[in-house]
Amino acid sequence: MRPRKWLYTLPLRLRSLFRRQRVEQELSEELQFHLDQKTQEYIASGLTPDEARRKARREFGGVELSKENCRDVRRVSHIQDLLQDLGFGLRILRNSPGFAIVAILSLALGIGANTAIFELLDAVLLRTLPVAAPEQLAEIRLNHEGRIGNSVARQKEYSSAQWQELERQQQSFSAIAAWSTERFDLGKGGEARYAEGLWVSGDFFRVLQVNPVLGRLFSKSDDYRGCGVQGVVISDAFWQREFGGRANLIGNTLSLDGYPFQIIGVTPPSFYGLEVGRNFDVALPLCSEPAIQGEQGWMNDATTWWLAAIGRLKPGWTLERATAQLAAVTPGILAMTLPSKYDSATRDKYLKFSFRVLPAATGVSSLRTQYQEPLFALLAISGLVLLIACANLANLMLARASAREKEMALRITLGASRGRVLRQLLAESLLLAAIGTAMGMALAQGLSKFLVAFISNEGDPIFLPLWPDLRVLLFTMGLAVLTCLLFGVAPALQAARSDPGAAMKGSGRGITTGRHSFVLRRGLIVSQVALSLVLLVAALLFVRTFRNLLMLNAGMQQDSILVADFDFSRLNLPIERRLEYRRQLLPSVRSTPGVDSAAETSIVPLRGDGWNQFIDIPEAGIQRKLVDFDEVSTQYFQTLRIPLLAGRDFNENDTTNAPPVAIVNEKFARTILGGGNAIGRTFRERQAGGKPDKVYQIVGLVGDTKYRDLRDDFNPIVFVAADQDLAPDSDSTIVIRSSGGVSPLVAGLKDTAQRMSPEIVLEFGVLRTSVLHGLMRERLMATLSGFYGALATILAMIGLYGIISYMVIRRRNEIGIRMALGASKSSILKIILREGLGLVAVGLVIGTILAVIGGRAARAMLFGVNPADPITLALAIGGLTLVAVVASLLPAMRATGIHPMQVLREE
Amino acid sequence: MSKPSDLVQGTLDLLLLKILALEAMNGYAISLRLKQVSGDVLQVSDGSLYPALHKLEQEGWITAEWKPTENNRRAKFYSLTRMGRKQLEKESANWSRLSAAISNIVKLEEA
Fold it and tell me: What is the pTM of this model?
């Protein structure tokens, strides 16, 4: 019967809730009708209208009371009560703004920080691509152990030859596509303005089932060998940015690296490519690559790995089945694509490659690998801060509950049920949680955008659309409910359980009342202190890691170095004329105002670039040793202040007609040459096509430098002379030391380039900036964990201050009596301090254990610090103790200021 | 006239339901009918009549409709619902049992 009754009365209840005024009006009307009828009755029996009315009224009893009773009956109990409670709670909060502000702020900060990081995590890890049926998408990866060749672009998986064979022979996918990334210069000379580009095979948009918003997208017929310069597809963002979103765009020309491409279509705004964290501007078919890159092109080189592959699985096919099918055709693919210039050892390795099929519903991302761990660590940290904030709030609420014991007792005595009182307290907590969450959400939006901006930079922009999707919303609401329960329930239960009589009589001798809450509050303080210690230790570890990396000796002077890349490929100089061009370029750069020294290099250190070759030293029995190489001009070591330890630098005599010379670093001399004098020794480089080995003579020895990354060890490096390069590239990267400002230097260099040839494309970067950017992860962790650590400490100390004050208030009488009996101020101080610091000590012990465990877990993110480093621990413990002493001292001193007579009089 | 008895809440419900079972009427008419049928023995104070009616409405045993009366004034007319009918049966049965039990005891002869 119950459910049917509910169905029946629901409209009624809803009406009472939402049509309050109407219902009230009807009630009045109904009772008025009764009164009028009664009045008529009495008039008919002979009374005057006035008398009749009065009599009717009198007989009715209290009209208003009756109305009230009717209202009570109609009460849509729960919801109306809740609203009433909320209203009441709001008023209470307004009366104690201090408490409200502290509570809401801590909640907002805790929830906001958590949500922001969760949003980032969600965007980087969990969100699926905005394409149709993303669960059918799969990435095809290659295990290429021991592969030799040229890995370029972020994708670096397949060569064109491999891709073509794969496309031909695969059978697991209904459609398959290859893609790669590239930057294209939009300008026609001078400083470069880059567009983020995608190389795509014909079926790319078909695999992803993306439809154009304007024009059309590529199809298989657009990707054919030798297509040259044809069409380009642009993204919606690029369309808005460059062309203002104007409609008559199709057919217009877009210049990419100086080549005129025709715009054929625009992708929808929700599509940003396959890489999470990146957006693309333009897309070109693979076949156009040779047209742009020329003979340095990737497409026609059997050992340039530049493509990644993605496919849509056939309906019903699993990843395992696809992998198995690919395994079956692998030997065929590898045999067909074996590069001819490989020697037998490399050949064997090549034929052992194997394919892997991985799910690609969430796209591919280097952002993921880089930032996954720090993001989780940050989530853990902000989770701890939230816990501390909740503990604080719980303490605050408990204190208030004790203070309001009398009020609660009064209400219970006046007839409120305990349930009602409990509900009201819970409603207050709910209100705090709601306001805190709302502020937290707002904070999260700002914070997450700030985080993305923090880790992004101009050369490597991160594009990560952030919005609080359903998952994040649920997460935040879950957090809010959890915190509400955590700090609302305990005090509410305590208050509701209190015996009204005792509370009303409450003289505050109070050592017996509230025993339970005391234990709870102590436990909260202990846990707060413990967690704060963990966070402080974490912050210190991360800050030290960052400092260690910043101050790491890279073997060179990184400051005041500008890296300028001069790309003169548009001049289309033949190989023979290039060296001469470069030999003209370098001196004019050197004579540019502001340049202290300048030198060419093929590898800019600490950028992650690298070049290695095999060398042989037959006399030392060294065969096919892979060594890092760098090709530099004269004065390179001088420019970067790399010490020249023996021999000489390259000079004008080291030309293409002279015998090949090389300079090596100490590591090379020690580990490969086995110590001893390196000058005069030789090594060989094998040549292709049966030509005799190239023999280099070592003429100089320099100090060790870091090659790709600050975190690597020092490696053996061989430097060869740029002037001896028989096949130079048509671009020149020059490192420039300058003591002046960057902008005038850049202006001067642009001028120099312009005077040499206006078609030169320039790109500038400050070395130190790119190094710092490489340390972004560590910087992020140091900054945020430091901030959170400080926040946690402040919160914990507020909590400690609060509970000691509370203890003092509770024990006022005891203190007063003691003092009246002659106890000294210092002994009172000692009693109080002992309690507070006792708690802190327990917290510190627990915290230390947790910190050591946590440190071990985060080991991978640390550098140069031991996770259980005693100095760090001591620093953190010391700092926390100091703050704890101060926080306890203040209320303790106030306690000794209590006048004994005052207390006794209150008895 | 004997003093009007105080009515227990539960029995008031029973009376109201029964009256409405016979005919749909507004609150004033109900109070008249009660007085009339019980011979002035049962008098419900007007103040407690309406809360009782509203409670019956909340329970779903009666339903209300605003209709014009004979003198063309708007009044709220209550009528019994199907569930109300069932409730009426239940309460009538209870009442019979109760009153029979009380009668039995009262009729006991002193020994």
Answer: 0.69
